[in-house]
Amino acid sequence: MIRRNTLVRLLERRFTAKVPLKKAWAHLERIEQWPSWARHIRRIDLRPSGPLGIHSEGAIQLTNGIRSTFRMEELNVGSNWKWVGPFLWITVHYDHRFKRTGPEESEISFVLDGEGFGAGVFGRLFAAIYARNLDRAIPNLIKELEDE
Questions:
Q1: Which of 70, 101, 118, 140 has the most CB atoms lying inside 10 A of its own CB?
Q2: At residue 1, does pLDDT exceed 70?
Q3: 90 pairs with which residues across the strands?
């Protein structure tokens, strides 16, 4: 019998910014500039450089020295992109969702799902740490979006 891994929802953060959806997408797809608002990130290298594409992949280095890689798993321009990467024994799926809530307002969601050995345990530990970082970063992102 083949047993397939099931996804475990680890984290979801949803927030609103007073900017048109197109502007929110354009700002966030500049992945290499994320350290300006996500201060827990030291550096992100995206290949190929430039706008996100179905073949985008990269490496992220956090300020605590942890490094990870990611590759594009799903891309629906203007709606969402999902990348996937390893963390210990689990595979983490990072979904970045965008929704127009008004002419000058957008809802952005960051959703993390995990799968693999220990996703319920190690994934939740990872999510707890990641949640603290996101909770500090999201206000910076909203300010940056709205001041741009």
A1: 70
A2: no
A3: 87, 116
